[in-house]
Design brief:
Layout lengths: L10 H10 L4 H41 L1 E3 L21 E3 L6 E5 L12 E2 L8 E2 L17 E3 L12 E3 L4 E5 L12 E3 L4 E4 L13 E3 L4 E4 L13 E3 L4 E4 L4 H5 L5 E3 L4 E5 L12 E3 L4 E4 L13 E3 L4 E2 L15 E3 L7 E3 L7 E2 L27 E3 L6 E3 L12 E3 L4 E3 L14 E3 L6 E2 L12 E3 L4 E5 L30 E3 L6 E4 L7 E4 L4 E3 L8
Organism: Dipteronia sinensis
Protein name: Leucine-rich repeat-containing N-terminal plant-type domain-containing protein
Keywords: ATP-binding, Cell membrane, Glycoprotein, Leucine-rich repeat, Membrane, Nucleotide-binding, Repeat, Signal, Transmembrane, Transmembrane helix
């Protein structure tokens, strides 16, 4: 038996003994060793945090050195003499660890011109997709940051939010971005990055938002985009990406709310399993080279609010299942050739179509009755799509309808009186069809900003047109707002109008355009206007 030596503890350790019940030297030695271990660990933690401060600071200073132009002085207070970078412009640190968790050097100071504007507060963010004016941010590089994204970005290992949108950053996206394992929001939209989307991005498994829109990325969409379990937004619009849309997006990303891939070179079919994305609110696939039919599985997207499939090579029959998307507010299936109108501050400016742009979506059959019964529909755009049959008579089931374009199809029958229930309707274009019969007096022609029924076979007298009957003529054609998002609102209006007669120009300057030409109307013209 090993003898235990009894000794008298100093008073400074007696309290320690009472707390830890030290009764002998063996227990005391063990406890003392534990205390020393704890002190060593604490010291290491402090040193590690200090190293973290230095690592973040060093990474940020290297990022600054790679910026060649900073006209607004975003990084002017990034002083290497500062103890930590948490007070620097655009830098957010964790209140406990002091590590850099967010970097916001976006040059988008005006929310009205942001394609993807994010507010990351306490791990939450809201999405805004307002109307984008060409004159805003994207084309005005004079006040934007320029340069490369330094490899040192990988040193910000605690980064959760990276916002660099609306600048002039160029070059390839560094592979080191894959070291940001905690990254949740990546917004690099409206820059000049090029090359492939780096495969190392698959390491950022916490991503919720990926916005790479309006850059020059090429290659294909990596299949690992379907491996991010929390992914809510993927915006890749207006790049030079090609190949097919990965099936994995619909197989694994059940949290997806927004898919924006317009203006690329995607080919193949629209993945049928996108119908599995039950939370999807907007699906924007316009201006690509997508083929085949519209999957009927999209009818399972009961939360869908905006669908734009225009400017592709789609064909087949319009799926009646789209009528199951009861939340749908915006449905754009095709754009017209020719000069386009765009809404902007209460006027209808004319913008030329980009040379070479076309829309080759041509569908068989008619317009499913279910689509004309969508209770929240506000905009339906389907001109020149080869649609046939009797003109749908159930538009009165769309009481919120504001804009309806079915021009240049092959509809027969009459313009329905049920349109009188669409009290917000201010744009109606059904020109170049085979419509017959009279103009219904019930639909308040005079209250519409654009009314085009030209090149049909309409007959009888033209109803009296008087703006005095309108309770309120719209003072401005404001962008559509779909729930929280103002949507990207690049909705252009067809100029199929052959001879426009301006009937009114109210004091607010809004021009009212009505075209009733090339029909078989009778009666005196003097009875038309009041």
């Amino acid at each position: 038996m090993v003898p235990i030596r009894i000794f008298k503890m100093p008073k400074t350790l007696q309290n320690y003994n009472r707390h830890y019940r030290l009764g002998n030297s063996l227990n005391f030695d063990k406890s003392l060793n534990s205390l020393v271990g704890i002190l060593i660990i604490c010291s290491l933690v402090v040193l590690a945090e200090a190293d973290g401060y230095d690592e973040d600071k060093d990474a940020l200073l290297k990022l600054k050195s790679a910026i060649t132009e900073d006209p607004l002085g975003f990084t002017s207070n990034w002083n290497p003499k500062d103890r930590d970078p948490c007070s620097w412009y655009g830098v957010t640190c964790d209140s406990q660890s002091g590590r850099v968790t967010a970097l916001n050097l976006s040059s988008n100071s005006n929310g009205s011109c942001s394609l993807l504007s994010l507010q990351a507060t306490g791990g939450n963010f809201s999405l805004l997709f307002p109307y984008l004016h060409e004159s805003d941010g994207y084309k005005n590089y004079s006040s934007k940051l320029r340069g490369k994204l330094s490899l040192a970005i990988g040193g910000l290992t605690q980064l959760r939010v990276l916002l660099l949108g609306f600048n002039g950053f160029s070059g390839e996206l560094p592979l080191e971005i894959g070291k940001l394992y905690l990254l949740e929001i990546l917004d690099l939209g409206f820059n000049a990055f090029y090359g492939n989307i780096p495969l190392t991005l698959q390491n950022c498994t916490s991503l919720r938002v990926i916005n790479l829109s309006w850059n020059r990325f090429n290659g294909t969409i990596p299949s690992f985009f379907g491996q991010f379990p929390d992914l809510q937004v993927v915006s890749l619009s207006f790049n030079m990406l090609s190949g097919s849309i990965p099936e994995e997006l619909g197989e694994n990303c059940r949290s997806l709310e927004h898919i924006h891939m317009a203006g690329n070179l995607f080919s193949g079919s629209i993945p049928k399993n996108l119908g599995n994305c039950s939370k999807l609110r907007s699906l924007i696939l316009s201006s690509n080279m997508l083929q085949d039919d519209i999957p009927s599985s999209l009818g399972k997207l009961v939360n869908l609010q905006a669908l734009d499939l225009s400017r592709n090579f789609l064909s087949g029959v319009l799926p009646p299942e789209l009528g199951n998307c009861k939340q749908l507010e915006v449905l754009v299936l095709k754009h017209n050739h020719g000069t386009l109108y765009s809404r902007d501050n209460g006027s209808l400016p004319i913008q030329p179509v980009v040379e070479g742009e076309g829309d080759f979506n041509f569908f068989d059959g008619g317009l499913p009755d279910s689509i004309t019964r969508l209770p929240n529909l506000r905009l339906f755009w389907a001109p020149n799509m080869n649609l046939v049959g009797v003109f749908p008579q159930n538009w009165g089931s769309c009481p919120k309808l504001e804009m309806l374009n079915l021009a240049q199809n092959f509809f027969t029958g009459q313009i329905p009186t049920s349109l009188r229930n669409c009290r917000s309707l201010y744009f109606l274009d059904v020109s170049s069809n085979n419509l017959t019969g009279p103009l219904p007096e019930e639909i308040s022609i005079s209250c519409m900003v654009v009314f085009n029924v030209s090149q049909n076979f309409l007959s009888e007298d033209i109803p009296r047109i008087s703006h005095r009957e309108c309770p309120k003529m719209p003072g401005a054609l404001s962008p559509l707002h779909v729930d929280m998002l103002g949507f990207y609102a690049s909705f252009f209006y067809s100029k199929a109008i052959m001879s426009i007669a301006p009937l009114s120009s109210p004091s607010d300057g809004l021009v009212v355009l009505h075209d009733l030409s090339s029909n078989r109307f009778t009666g005196p013209c003097s009875s038309i206007f009041n």
